[in-house]
Amino acid sequence: MKGPEVLGNSLSKHEQIIRYIKALNVESRVSVRQIAKDMRVSEGTAYRAIKEAEAQGLVSSIPKVGTVRIQTEKERGIEELSLKEISLILEGEVITGQQNLGTAPSRFVIGSNSLEILNKYLEKDALLIVGDIAQIQLFALQKSAHLIIAGAFRVTEELIHAAEEKGLVIISCPYDTFEAVSILNRALHDRLTEKELVRVEDIMVTDVHYLLADGSVADWHRLAQKTGHSRFPIVDQNMIVIGIVTAVDVAGADQKASILSVMTKDVLKVGKDSLVSHLSRALLWEGFELIPIVDGGRLIGVVSRQDILQAFQQKQKQPHVGETVDNLVMSGFSLDKWEQGTKVSGEITQFMINEYGAASPGILVTIASTAAYIAARRQRLNTVLSNLTIHHLETVEVGSRVEVYAQVIHLEKKACVIDVNIYSNGKLMLKGLINSRIIKK
Question: What pLDDT is attached to residue 406?
Answer without folding.
Answer: 94
